[in-house]
């Protein structure tokens, strides 16, 4: 959620320097928003492509598990299983068109990658009208009114474009979020926390300790049970998506927070509450595109549009509908 360190300093949000530019790809989001580049690269295990896209008011595409290869020939140790199942690479851009272009390049295969799947970028045509489920809340947590309104507005744009839009709750949302934490706190953060203690600055160490206090690691049996449960939850989600091929939700529960909110227990609890909705697509391995919708002061609220596995094309098509109504993002002059 934050891009700040004692070695290089803070990445400022070009929309409002008093709030976070997001993380962990906050610099990528700020660079795209200011026009330093048209396409930036991020990686997302809990929201780190979509969160900086929201905070900086740009587009962020989280791809399906296996869509973009991530083979690293210099990696000395194996990745945690949770990272293998939930972390993906993806682009941040100012337009959905550029996100589509970046995906086509990033998805080129790598014969050494253990998860890359040779699946066409365009899936089969769906029966019309394509049905969309709106869920305008952060499940089990706080939802900022501007975020809820962004979902409703996106739904109106899609309905005007011929989509069949209903408010509907996808299955197992609370359980999906709990399962992410059971895997993430034990397996992913279990491997990362010692490195943060060794190499991180004071704020990073504090943030990591508070995270693990709020969501303590499980034992090995608990992790194995969570990995098994992940499969069942995905079955239920894919069944729901036979009826609703697209789901529109807030990108986060809240808007961009002030800097260093995660360095107090109360602040970290607020951060963890806000990201609940961003943990759904990583746990399931399905794609989601974050697009800005509306304005709230200097910030852009936003939605994420989720689809079934390897249907990034459906996310991009729907994102283009929203973008056509909202307008393509133009570079921000942070000195304005």
Tag the structure with descriptive keywords.
13% strand, 336 residues, two-stranded antiparallel sheet, eight-stranded mixed sheet, alpha+beta, 11 helices, single chain
Largest sheet: 8 strands, mixed
Average of the residue pLDDT scores: 96
Radius of gyration over alpha carbons?
19 Å
Helix content: 40-55%
Order of strands, widest sheet: 3-5-4-9-10-8-6-7
Contiguous low-pLDDT stretches (5 residues minimum) are none
% residues in beta strands: 5-15%
Shape assignment: globular
Order of helices and strands: EEHEHEHEHEHEHHHEHHEEH
Which class do the helix and strand fractions yield?
A: alpha+beta
Please report the total strand number as a whole number.
10
CA distance, first residue to last residue: 25 Å
Q: Total helix count? A: 11
Question: How does this model look, in words?
Answer:
The chain is α+β, with helices and mostly antiparallel strands and 336 residues long. 43% of the residues lie in helices and 13% in strands. The protein is built from eleven helices and ten strands. Strands 3-5-4-9-10-8-6-7 form an eight-stranded mixed beta sheet, with helices on both faces. Helix 1 (26-34) packs across helix 2 and helix 4 runs antiparallel to helix 11 (312-326). The model has no long low-confidence stretch (mean pLDDT 96).
């Amino acid at each position: 959620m934050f891009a700040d360190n004692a070695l290089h300093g803070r990445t400022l949000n070009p929309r409002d320097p008093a709030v976070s530019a997001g993380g962990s790809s906050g610099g990528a989001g700020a660079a795209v928003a200011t026009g330093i580049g048209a396409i930036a690269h991020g990686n997302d295990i809990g929201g780190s492509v979509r969160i900086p896209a929201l905070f900086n008011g740009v587009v962020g595409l989280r791809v399906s598990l296996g869509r973009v290869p991530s083979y690293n020939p210099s990696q000395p140790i194996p990745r945690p299983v949770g990272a293998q199942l939930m972390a993906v690479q993806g682009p941040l851009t100012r337009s959905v068109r550029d996100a589509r272009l970046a995906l086509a390049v990033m998805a080129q295969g790598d014969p050494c990658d253990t998860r890359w799947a040779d699946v066409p970028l365009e899936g089969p045509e769906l029966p019309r009208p394509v049905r969309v489920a709106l869920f305008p809340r952060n499940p089990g947590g706080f939802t900022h009114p501007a975020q809820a309104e962004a979902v409703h507005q996106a739904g109106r744009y899609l309905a005007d474009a011929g989509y069949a839009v209903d408010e509907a709750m996808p299955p197992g949302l609370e359980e999906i979020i709990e399962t992410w934490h059971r895997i993430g706190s034990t397996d992913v953060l279990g491997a990362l926390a010692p490195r943060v203690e060794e190499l991180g600055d004071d704020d990073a160490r504090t943030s990591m300790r508070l995270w693990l206090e709020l969501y303590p690691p499980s034992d090995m049996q608990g992790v194995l049970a969570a990995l098994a449960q992940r499969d069942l939850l995905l079955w239920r989600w894919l069944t729901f998506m036979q009826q609703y091929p697209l789901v529109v939700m807030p990108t986060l529960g809240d808007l961009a927070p002030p800097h260093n909110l995660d360095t107090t227990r109360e602040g970290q609890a607020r951060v963890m509450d806000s990201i609940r909705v961003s943990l759904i697509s990583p746990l399931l391995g399905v794609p989601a595109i974050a697009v800005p919708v509306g304005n709230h002061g200097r910030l852009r609220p936003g939605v994420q549009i989720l689809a079934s596995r390897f249907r990034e094309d459906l996310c991009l098509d729907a994102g283009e509908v929203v973008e056509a109504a909202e307008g393509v993002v133009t570079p921000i002059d942070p000195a304005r």
